[in-house]
Amino acid sequence: MHALRPLLLSLISFTSFTFAQSLPIDVREATISSLHSSLFSGVTTCRDVVSAFIARVERFNSDINAIITLNPDVLQIADSLDVSLSTGNATGALFCIPILLKDNYDATPMPSTAGCLALNSSTPTHDAPTVAALRRAGAVILGKSNLHELALEGLSVSSLGGQTLNPYDFNRTPGGSSGGTGAAIAASFAVFGTGTDTVNSLRSPASANSLFSFRPTRGLISRSGVIPISYTQDTVGAIGRCLYDIATALTVMSSVGYDSLDNATSAIPPSTIGTDYTSFLSSSTSTSSLSSLSTIRIGVLEGFFNRTSTNETSPVNAAMSTILSLLQTAGATIVNITDTTTYNATAISSAMDVQQLEYRESLTAYLSSPNLKGARPLSMPELYTTNLTTPEFLVIPSQYSYVETALRSSTGNASYFTRQSMIANLTRTLHSTFLAHNLDAIIYPEQKNLVVPVGSPSQSGRNGILAALTGSPVITIPIGFSPATSSAPIGIPIGMEILGLPWSEGTLLQLAKSIDDRLHARKMPVTNGLNETVEVTTSYVTVPEVTLLRNIPAAYPLGVY
Ligand SMILES: *[C@@H]1O[C@H](CO)[C@@H](O)[C@H](O)[C@H]1NC(C)=O
Ligand SMILES: *[C@@H]1O[C@H](CO)[C@@H](O)[C@H](O)[C@H]1NC(C)=O
Ligand SMILES: *[C@@H]1O[C@H](CO)[C@@H](O)[C@H](O)[C@H]1NC(C)=O
Ligand SMILES: *[C@@H]1O[C@H](CO)[C@@H](O)[C@H](O)[C@H]1NC(C)=O
Ligand SMILES: *[C@@H]1O[C@H](CO)[C@@H](O)[C@H](O)[C@H]1NC(C)=O
Ligand SMILES: *[C@@H]1O[C@H](CO)[C@@H](O)[C@H](O)[C@H]1NC(C)=O
Ligand SMILES: *[C@@H]1O[C@H](CO)[C@@H](O)[C@H](O)[C@H]1NC(C)=O
Ligand SMILES: *[C@@H]1O[C@H](CO)[C@@H](O)[C@H](O)[C@H]1NC(C)=O
Ligand SMILES: *[C@@H]1O[C@H](CO)[C@@H](O)[C@H](O)[C@H]1NC(C)=O
Ligand SMILES: *[C@@H]1O[C@H](CO)[C@@H](O)[C@H](O)[C@H]1NC(C)=O
Ligand SMILES: *[C@@H]1O[C@H](CO)[C@@H](O)[C@H](O)[C@H]1NC(C)=O
């Protein structure tokens, strides 16, 4: 880009003469690279790019209910980037790239609500370090997306934001907990969005919305300034429509490096500092055999499939079979990992998950931090007992025991030590599986069945727990769709996890690219005209307010503790 700048500058002056007003910009499926081409050739302005995304939110958010708030500063930010553009100072890998943040990331001047009514006024005084890094790289924070309340389940329903719907089938959930980000990015409300992942939450929304995401190696990206659940399991990452965009997000977010407020970052190997993860996607620099796939060895976890044959499971198994044939045809070696006793997601979750033991301490530390202002509960127990007459949070029936246990548990429990020992053993076992079979990666469907309908008690069948406990990196990619139905005109998206050893993000991106180059599974949604262009009819003077649709399914009462 640097070498091109003199040429681009002359193009800008030429085109601004030719077009008194910039051409309408079509932001459906826009990427960092497509927007940069339009901006740097003078075909459009940052103000017009931002306005085009706002117009999509205005037109379609009432269909999918993915956005909690728009950033009131966004037009000013766009205008200041236009000044940089006109003075030849358009720098940053994310220059004028509109992004959305899951509403558990601290970003001024917006509140960080986690979708919880009780936190509607809880406002950060500082950006999370990852948010600051995204802004430094030129990203335009368009707003905040809905999530499953406090990121505790995968249905993406919350007391503040209501139920987000899947853009491919309005009868289905968008996965979760980062489901607002998933639905919004599928609908081209922004270029990419951030999420968090304690068990599945960056991967389930990617899988359910035909998108790509990364869950980084535990420690690679600072989690400070993000509403926490679990010190052991939480990670932050991004969800996007193409690998290049999420690799750019990974490069920018990991540039935070060591953060004294998140000591997991002390594990970052010096050799990974400053890595440009997009370099793993360029075919010219990819010297490894991964692009040919012929010497690749990939494990498949048999225990992470549901082999019963129903409309909910068979499409997932069929999509995975297609991938395995594709890999074998390309010369890859597939190793069937048949130890279904060790690799049983249900059994691993119930024996080893430590969220309920860490949640109270982690959330209280966040809520009592001096970096928040505004009325709010100051501890996790206070949140859940705030007000018995006006419940201000939502707990779906399947979560009651989770919250009850978390209210009286801590890392001081004897069971915490037992679970951490089992996690250490699972991590050794997983590494042994990699080494014994000389594997480059392990694959399995993110979810054994299609993403569940709205009103279901939980987001069942997901396989995220293995990476969550072992701190392994995962790239999730779209691999297909179920058959079309009357409510799902192009079917329901299906996604696959590609899991690696710690710090193998580059290898995973290369492998994801060689599969995606052959498959091209991502499709935009068509429901209710989501695939149509939206004209910007208003010249925005202020940012429109988002109407929150509190469409909470009757099956989920607002909780009272
Ligand atoms: C160019 O942009 C950078 C980053 O936004 C800013 O710090 C710098 O002051 C700008 N330089 C000029 C000459 O405008
Ligand atoms: C937050 O919610 C309370 C009631 O629960 C309401 O009175 C207040 O206006 C809300 N604040 C904001 C900033 O929306
Ligand atoms: C790291 O931070 C966690 C949570 O803040 C704390 O429990 C742990 O003791 C710290 N570990 C080290 C090695 O400082
Ligand atoms: C399963 O799918 C088939 C064809 O796609 C359809 O005819 C049938 O009604 C579905 N069964 C159920 C139980 O939904
Ligand atoms: C793996 O082995 C199991 C049990 O032997 C078998 O049912 C399954 O089809 C195999 N999977 C692959 C991908 O070959
Ligand atoms: C460690 O994991 C292996 C493989 O699942 C299992 O066979 C073994 O019993 C476990 N050891 C302990 C001490 O939990
Ligand atoms: C997986 O674990 C669950 C819960 O422990 C158990 O009910 C199920 O039978 C196990 N599945 C296999 C294939 O071992
Ligand atoms: C509880 O709700 C009542 C009625 O809305 C309100 O007057 C009171 O201030 C609330 N208490 C707390 C602690 O939020
Ligand atoms: C932790 O200890 C408390 C107090 O003994 C107990 O009520 C709770 O169930 C324990 N939690 C777990 C997850 O073991
Ligand atoms: C497998 O799928 C069937 C049918 O959808 C479902 O009833 C069952 O609970 C699933 N089993 C697991 C372990 O997910
Ligand atoms: C949008 O999708 C509908 C239904 O598949 C199709 O008829 C229409 O041509 C599509 N529009 C565009 C602009 O692609």
TrEMBL record:
Residues spanning the membrane: none
UniProt keyword terms in alphabetical order: Signal
InterPro entries: Amidase_dom, AS_sf
Amidase domain: residues covered: 48-509
KW Transport (keyword) present: no
Family annotation (SUPFAM superfamilies): Amidase signature (AS) enzymes (SSF75304)
Residues in the signal sequence: 1-22
Keyword Membrane: no
Pfam families with a match to the protein in the record: Amidase
Protein's name according to its UniProt entry: Amidase domain-containing protein
